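Issue: copy button drops trailing tokens. Both records pasted manually instead:
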Amino acid sequence: MPLRVATYIVFFLFLLSGTLSVGAAVCRWRWFFETQNSRLMIRFFGRRGARIFYLFLGIFVWAMAYVIYRDHDLF
């Protein structure tokens, strides 16, 4: 039973973090891109490149959430 609860927690964390990343990339959230880690990505890739990076990162995290959903038959 505790493993199933942990699986739900990880699934929802992945779902939430992927949504946050995609939302920030698509909506150009200023507060997201002013954080220290995002400024580092902007320094490496530029503003547009950082948005593309976070878009793909969010899609990748959503894919990981899907794998958890598929492999553990959550719902």
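Record 2 (pasted manually too):
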Amino acid sequence: MLLDLTLADGDGLDVLARLRAEDQMPPQTIALTGHDDDEVRQRCIDAGCTGVMIKPVPIARLLALVQSP
């Protein structure tokens, strides 16, 4: 799952918390954020994200990450 942290109606990590509570966690979650700092990265990892990408994300890099096993 690609998960933007900045959503119109809340925080993307809140979405991930709801999925976890409902036992619906996807096998992989890549967080997309415009905040390039260690605290945000750590929050994402602690929430269960398997990767964090800083926006804007080069399309080739995003495709490579999504297509990797």
